[in-house]
Design goal:
- By secondary structure, the chain is α+β, with helices and mostly antiparallel strands.
- The C terminus is likely disordered.
- The strands form six sheets. It has a six-stranded antiparallel beta barrel with strand order 3-11-14-13-12-15.
- It has five helices and 24 strands.
- The radius of gyration is 46 Å and the shape is rod-shaped.
Length: 370
Amino acid sequence: MTADLRSYAGLASVLSLLALQACSKPEPAQRPVVEHAARVALVDTRALADPLRLSGALVAREEAAVSTELNGYRVARVLADLGDRVRSGQPLAVLDDALLRGQIAQQIAVVEQQAVAAERAEQEAARVAGLDKLGALSPESVAERALQARSAKAALAQAQAVLADLRLRQSMMVVRAPVSGRILSRSVRPGEVAAAGQVMFRLARDGLVELDAEAAETRLAGLAPGARASVRLPDGQTLSGVVRLVSPEVDPQTKLGRVRVQLPLSQALHPGGFAEAMINTRPRQAITAPQSAVLYDGDGASLLVVVQGERVRKVPVKTGLLIGDRVEIVQGVRGGERVVLSGGALLLPGDKVKATNVEIADAAGKGAAR
């Protein structure tokens, strides 16, 4: 009995020891420090030319409306059509002036009658002038003759004014182009009765067409009148343009400002159409790193920066534009840091590196090895 108890106690102690060994975790082996050969380059600041891409509608630089100031006259002829290029003062439409010619003839007769009446009244006033002093006529009669002469002259002036108005209307029977340009629309037909203010034609002044686009307010600062632009039309044709206008105002709702790009004369430009522009903006200073130094994973972009002791540290960054083989670094580094180039994906934070080839980029963007 005693022997059995001792054997059971020994077995229990052995089992307890085994259980303790199974539960205990072995201490991790320290990772040996290995020095990796790596190519590194500097994060530098350089001028970036960031072309601005815009799209918008083709519009006439300035539109001119052609209308008449007359009412009630029939359109006799239309002398121009859509797409025609016209000169300033060129006749575009003619109104029927048959009724107006009759009115002018009648008014000419009225003017002649008033001229005769005025002449008679003036002669009568001259004949009796001074007779009041001789006692032949009363002063009231002499004054009456003078007033009649003045009234006849006023009636003549009024008749002449009416005649001048009719002749002015006659000169407006021909509707002329106010400016030189290209006809964009026509809304008049022969036989219609003209109405004052009715737009008969719309002209693109001098035939000039521009690109009207919108740009974000953050990009307006880099734009200035005179900047060169390349405008691509829907048919694939490319025209050279110049920024003519940058809006001084930004829409408070959309935060967009208007940009007008002046284009050369071309039959391929149709107001109302669509076009895209690439505008050269002023270069700006930006922090950049080689494209091969930027690593991407589930957490985003990062750089392996070589810190004190020649060890690497992973630094999350926010990237911007890709210009050639350089990437703009918007956030994360300040410039001047050394970063590991291609092959950095095999390194871990804390690894020690030996820079075998350091590439330093100068302000002109040229690389030198050392």
